[in-house]
Amino acid sequence: MNRTLPSTSIPYYSTGGGYSIPTYTKSSTFGLNLSKQGRNLIILIALGLPIGFITSYFFVDNYQLLLLLLQDNYLVYHGWVPPILTSMIVAVPSLSGLEDVFFNAISVLFVDGLLRNAYTRTQYYLVFLITGIAGNLLSLVAYGPGTGILSTTISFGASGGIFGLLAGALATDFTTNRRVNTTLLLWFIFVFIISSIGIGVDAFAHIGGTLSGIVAGYMIGRSRSRTMSHF
User: For the chain, where are the E strands, in sequence order?
Assistant: First the structure.
């Protein structure tokens, strides 16, 4: 899940078929037998908490180092743009950060078997990255820069990219087979529900990830359909 934390002196907001299957892998519906890319993604998500914990020891006036890795809207609007990417893999060392990492990792664990049947290995990583960034950008625009460093929105989490992967897989399947994959749809709903638990969920990051995932999935499905039509 992507989360948003209430505006305080440290105002965090947190953000998270039946067509030809890539030959490198095939698995059961449930992703307990993880693909390499699914395992790598879970490791990346899990590392977010220790990264946040370690950087929190380097306070320089009000969590300054940690804030440089999270998406602080005020700082991004004033030119510090790396957190649009780094906030996807860094979590606040708190209960909300632990929840964020746990639910995102569990989501990937159980849907990996479906996702790797929708994407090649490269597509898996790229869709996660692009849709996660798109979710962060929509959150950035929606919440705005705030009026100062103490009244800004700060977000983190990988669920925008996870929503993008799921929505992209749905769109890929639909574009290729002209039908809705009900299993993928049910998992999308499940991830949406567990990602909406708790205070400060960044719905805009979820929406941005979903919409960009649909576009990415449509493009992948179209490309796959054209390739299959040549055979």
Answer: 3-4, 13-14, 71-72, 154-156
